[in-house]
Amino acid sequence: MSNPALPTEALILNRIQETDDIFTLQLKLTDPEQQWRLGIQPGQFNMLYRFGVGEIPISFKAISEDDQRQPVLEHTIRAVGRVSRALAALEPGERIGLRGPFGRGWPLQQAEGQDLCVVTGGLGCAPAVSIIEHAFANRERYGHIHIIQGVKHSADLLWRSRYEYWAQQPNTTVLMAADVAAPGWPWYSGRVTELLKRLPLKPEQTLVCCCGPEPMMQASAEQLIRQQVPAEAIWLSMERNMQCASGHCGHCQFGADFICRDGPVMPYPRLRDRLGLEGI
Amino acid sequence: MPAADFLPRSRLSSLFDLLKQRGYLLIGPQAVDGAILYRPLQHPEQLPNGIEQIQQPGQYRLIRTDNPRQFSWANGPQALKPLTFAPRETLWHSELNADGSLSFHEEIASPDPTAVIGVRGCDLAALALQDRHFADDPYYQKRRASLLLIAVDCAHPADTCFCASTGDGPDAKAGYDLALSELDEGFLLRVGSAAGQTLINALPLETATEQHRQQAETQQQQACQQQRQLPEFEPARLIHQGQHPAWEAVADACLSCGNCTSVCPSCFCFSESEVPELDGTASSHQRQWDSCFSEGHSYIHGHRFRPDTKGRYRQWLTHKFGSWVEQYGRSGCTGCGRCISWCPVGIDPLEVLTQLGREDKE
To answer: Which residues of A touch B330 (CB under 8 A)?
Structure first.
């Protein structure tokens, strides 16, 4: 096993501008011996490195294919800090560093044979898109798929055509909410938790994957528990400052858990008594 | 006939010579700039002869006495931490090549074999904690593997010490290669490892007298009579006592300077940063000690989870005495008292814990 602190080179094949400040990088690992890193699972993350600037943790979005049907790694990033803005300035053909995969992803095997309920808020949809894509790629392994996505403003919605495509698939429910909706928003105007009440859930055979701001995840989990979903069937993807990604640097501690290593995806009962506590 | 285990003070240099002969660099305590610091050492005369100390909340003073001993102080600001977990080090280098490709090279230091003389029990216990935390960190482990540890039981705890109540001192309990108990005429030795045994075999030892053994025992019993003790509190509850008024009061005094985390022998946080060369073709990726008192510690894309001193102090204390138990099966505190002495405003975490513990009983 190589030193987990040492990056490998990744070539930017393509760069997609999703919104004003959100972009997706399609990456190819240039070293043949590093292709094992493409075994990254939905919910896990990589550390992306911009030469001379630094590293940031970015969750895995998808593995797609290039023209030669070779695997391509996709990461969606919001340009909001020093490193993400520097990454945003890169063009196809340029190189970055990458190390990972890190952390624990969604409980894919546990979800098999069950209904999936994916509840996301804002850019929380990026790590959750990976599990939705996985479920559709292995459609026979899962029952009904519920997709609930909330955004602050209707203009923030990413991958609208993707959601519209999923909405047309059999045995699938797609519900969208915007806190603030511009004219022409065809979906719900309000909070995600209100939408959850409308879901035709079979609580005893549903696994919930939730990703978004912590108050939204907490409210969603409690709402689903009121709808008889067992707490242990609810999984949350957590986010904290991550620098080493190996459980050493201490920044991502959430109580006793190192989110980079023990998470980022964790069962709700593990988090329940700490979510919402000030300063944790 | 008991084995020879007594090294007269006049023969302490034979231990130094033996270690040098076996290829070790020597590091040991010296009185430098008004404090006891671990520095490279050549001969026993450099040890802090007759130096004692006063430690109080926010206070650290050395006193020169005619005491013949060399280890009659409790500790200095450094534990073993800088020797294993470097305050700043390069993890890897990257190069931007002419064709636009990037290459990465790891840089892991392999220090020469180093013998540390005068290690304290509290610091051995903290080292054991860091050994577990950094178990799969190659940078730490390379440095750790270079160390030979020669402990000296602490016979002069400071007023800030409470290692007896954490169970980590004042004598060296475990994790040493060789341990010394200092008496006026010399040192009683105990072996802690195979490497320590080979040292003992090569030293000009005598057999300790019954009087020596009694002196050592009495001295250890006296050293255990420390003024401070860890108060009673419920570790698992600390994190849920976030609204206790004690936090507000301590935050009013705390400067958020991070001295406590720097001198703490178990604090492990570090930040990573990039140091690019001016010509733009190469860059070094470094790590350096960080503190949960720093503004950036809880930063995440435009948001800080702990924007104020209250939240940061609470993070430090609830982690050290609470979450640590869940992470590593015991508290992260080994009772060295450094955070009390080196706090510029003299905050005593034990007082905060006392208040929190009192709430448990109510």
So the answer is: none
Beta strands A206-211 and A115-121 are: parallel
Cβ contact A274–B314 (<8 Å): no
Instruction: Count the Cβ atoms, other than its own, within 10 Å of residue A242.
Output: 26
Preferred mutation among B274, B291, B303, B319 to probe A, highest tally of A CBs within 10 A: B274
* Contact between B92 and A95 using a beta-carbon 8 Å cutoff: no
- ipTM beyond cut 0.90: yes
For A33, phi then psi, to 5°, come to: -75, -5
Quote the pTM value: 0.94
Is the Cβ of A124 closer than 8 Å to some Cβ of chain B? no
Strands A188-189 and A172-180: parallel
Instruction: Work out whether the CA dihedral A254, A256, A259, A265 comes out positive or negative.
Output: negative
pLDDT truncated to tens, each residue of chain B (362 aa)?
457 899 999 999 999 999 999 999 999 999 999 999 999 999 999 999 999 999 999 999 999 999 999 999 999 999 999 999 999 999 999 999 999 999 999 999 999 999 999 999 999 999 999 999 999 999 999 999 999 999 999 999 999 999 999 999 999 999 999 999 999 999 999 999 999 999 999 999 999 999 999 999 999 999 999 778 999 999 999 999 999 999 999 999 999 999 999 999 999 999 999 999 999 999 999 999 999 999 999 998 778 899 999 999 999 999 999 999 999 999 999 999 999 999 999 999 999 999 999 976 65
Q: Which of A54, A93, A273 has the CB atom closest to B274's CB atom?
A: A54
**How deeply is B193 buried, as exposed, middle or buried, from its count of CB atoms within 10 A (0-12, 13-18, 19+)?**
middle
Q: How many whole angstroms separate alpha carbon A225 and alpha carbon A227?
A: 5
For residue B255, give the 3-state DSSP assignment.
coil
- CB half-sphere exposure, B339, CA atoms < 13 A: 25
